[in-house]
Design a protein that fits this description.
609 residues; alpha+beta; Phosphorylase Kinase, domain 1; Transferase(Phosphotransferase), domain 1; Immunoglobulin-like; 5-stranded antiparallel beta sheet; 5-stranded mixed beta sheet; 42% helix; rod-shaped
Length: 609
């Protein structure tokens, strides 16, 4: 047996219950007209499902004075004709109570959990305001006075219907305090709650509260959770992606004082139409890659990025944090061991963020790559700024020998010695004891030329420096070539002059010039020794490398003339100069590698890339 009331005598069959208010004795049913329906059912329903609202006054807890509510609703509905208001079809009396018949709309109320996007909620607001404009434009105007999610139906196509006019008021007619109290707390305007003069702005409060519930996903029974200590509906923090104008419009709808709201539904509707409901801020960065390069150990470096938003009616809210990295110690969004943010949170459309890196916690001569995350109320919600940090070199200078100049020195010394050895060989063979004397004399003369070369080397260096500057030649070995060139010219002049006398004199002059070339190549202003000193090597190492290079060249020159394998002294000279020279050349890089290895041991507590 069905528990539904038997309304067959009135031409209806109840299909199911749509809702009820047991305390107030009101139950709403869905019914269909019977084939043998009365003229009421046949004439106005056309066989379509209808809604029957039954007022059961005989139920315990009900009050016969509630009959005024039925009369008021019938009085209001009879004169209404709007697609957003279900039509009044009639009424009849039963033994169980009085029944009001209305058009049925296949649409659930807003208390049924559903998901609407913000634009659909704006569409609902526009539809409801249009209904209120219709009601307020009637003569006399009609106030609904109970706008809340339960009394608003919305179908799948976002068609909106306003129901339950039981508390409605026509014009300025008086309403008993008891009926005022039957409104819903949280959706009633303050002036209605305290039974003060109502206005066309009163219904706007309930509509605004309903829209806020939809936008924040708050059930109508929990609206008190949104009301702060000042009795205002506080919701802005729950809808960060809504445009400012949309939020301001909603806040104006639920102002506590009627004079602070829109004066009527038409004004509110006009203000709402041009508003963008969703307008997401846009994050613009002046740079997405930050590179820090330290010139000394432990240096702190800072750069600034600008975060801007140019989208109107929006405020950019951003929060910055350094992304986690396997090499970094554990950190929180607000604190990082070596990357510091002067300010990590902004509510601003033009924010400056200063970023500082502390390289004292990082290994030297390394490259560190990290990511700075910018979380915001824009789309996408997270953007990335790449941070690249180049730490200062290891505090051990890199010194490189002038290998090319050394090679030239060895080459010219070998060539000069080969020429000189060939000449001396002939002189000694022809002159015997006299040749030996000449050799001793020439040695002394070479020493004198060496002193003269050291005095005049600045002139050669200046000339060569001008040539390098003119043609952009950075090669310091050019000085060695110049020394050979100028000394060679001098040798040719002296040799030519000596040819007028005895051949021996010409040979001596030529040998002296060649020895001067070797001396100048090793010791003139921009030569090997000076170059080594300029590169930070000690005087001992600079002179030792130069002397050994010259000695190795001389040994090689003699060896090429007299032979290597059959001449033990020559082989001993080559080996005796080459091994010490190799040791001196290998010492700087090996010593630097050793010092770097010791330094790295001390870096065990530092952060790795």
């Amino acid at each position: 047996m069905s528990n539904f009331p038997d309304l067959s005598s009135h031409g209806f069959r109840v299909v199911r219950e749509l809702g009820h208010n047991r305390a107030g004795g009101r139950v709403t049913y869905l019914a269909i007209p019977l084939p043998s329906a009365s003229s009421l059912a046949k004439g106005k329903m056309g066989g379509q499902p209808i809604v029957i609202k039954q007022f059961q006054f005989a139920k315990r807890g009900t009050n016969w004075s509630d009959y005024d509510t039925i009369e008021r609703e019938i009085q209001v509905l009879r004169g209404l004709n709007h697609p957003g208001i279900p039509r009044y079809l009639g009424s009849f009396q039963t033994s169980q109570g009085f029944c009001l018949v209305q058009e049925y709309k296949r649409a659930p109320s807003l208390v049924v959990p559903r998901s609407f996007d913000p634009d659909e909620i704006k569409q609902i607001a526009v539809s409801l305001l249009s209904i209120l404009v219709y009601l307020q434009n009637r003569i006399p105007a009609i106030s609904h006075r109970d706008l809340k999610p339960e009394n608003i139906l919305v179908d799948d196509k976002i068609n909106v219907f306003l129901v339950d006019f039981g508390l409605a008021r026509i014009g300025d007619s008086e309403v008993a305090v008891s009926s005022v109290a039957k409104g819903t707390i949280g959706f009633m305007a303050p002036e209605q709650l305290f039974n003060r003069q109502l206005s066309e702005a009163s219904d706007l409060y309930g509509l605004g509260a309903t829209l806020i519930c939809l936008l924040t996903g708050t059930p109508s029974t929990a609206i008190s959770n949104l009301i702060d200590d000042d009795y205002r509906i506080n919701f802005k923090h729950l809808v960060p992606k809504l445009s400012l104008r949309w939020i301001e419009w909603l806040q104006k709808m639920v102002e506590l004082k009627p004079k602070d709201r829109f004066p009527d539904a038409a004004t509110a509707l006009e203000a709402l139409k041009p508003i963008y409901v969703i307008r997401v801020p846009e994050v613009k960065l002046n740079q997405t890659n930050l590179e820090f390069t330290a010139k000394k150990l432990g240096e702190k470096l800072s750069q600034t990025i600008t975060i801007t938003n140019s989208v109107p009616d929006t405020v950019l809210e951003s929060r910055l944090e350094v992304a986690s990295h396997l090499s970094d110690p554990p950190h929180t969004p607000d604190f990082h061991r070596w990357i510091w943010l002067e300010q990590s949170e902004f509510i601003d459309n033009n924010a400056l963020c200063k970023i500082t890196v502390d390289t004292s916690r990082l290994m030297a001569n390394k490259t560190f790559e990290r990511e700075l995350l910018i979380h915001s109320n824009s789309q996408p919600e997270t953007q990335i700024v790449n941070i690249k940090v180049n730490t200062a070199p290891v505090p051990i200078a890199t010194k490189k020998m002038p290998y090319f100049s050394l090679a030239l020195l060895v080459f010219f010394a070998a060539v000069a010695t080969w020429v000189e050895t060939s000449a001396w060989e002939g002189i000694v063979n022809k002159s015997g004891t006299l040749g030996m004397a000449i050799a001793i004399f020439v040695s002394a003369f070479v020493a004198l030329l060496g002193v003269m070369a050291a005095v005049t080397s600045n002139f050669i260096s200046n000339v060569v420096a001008k040539i390098r500057s003119r043609f952009g030649l950075p090669l310091k070995a050019l000085d060695t070539v110049a020394a050979v060139f100028f000394a060679g010219v001098a040798a040719m002049m002296v040799t030519g002059f000596g040819a007028k006398f005895r051949a021996t004199n010409a040979a001596i002059a030529a040998f002296a010039a060649v020895d001067a070339v070797v001396f100048m190549a090793a010791f003139e202003g921009e030569g090997v020794a000076a170059s080594c000193l300029n590169r930070g090597f000690s005087k001992t190492l600079a002179c030792g490398v130069s002397i050994l290079s010259g000695a190795l060249g001389i040994s090689l020159g003699i060896g090429f003339k007299l032979g290597f394998f059959n001449n033990l002294p020559v082989m001993s000279a080559v080996l005796g100069t080459s091994f010490p020279l190799a040791a001196m050349l290998l010492y700087p890089p090996l010593e630097r590698a050793r010092r770097i290895a010791n330094y790295r041991k001390l870096e065990g507590h530092l952060i790795k890339p």
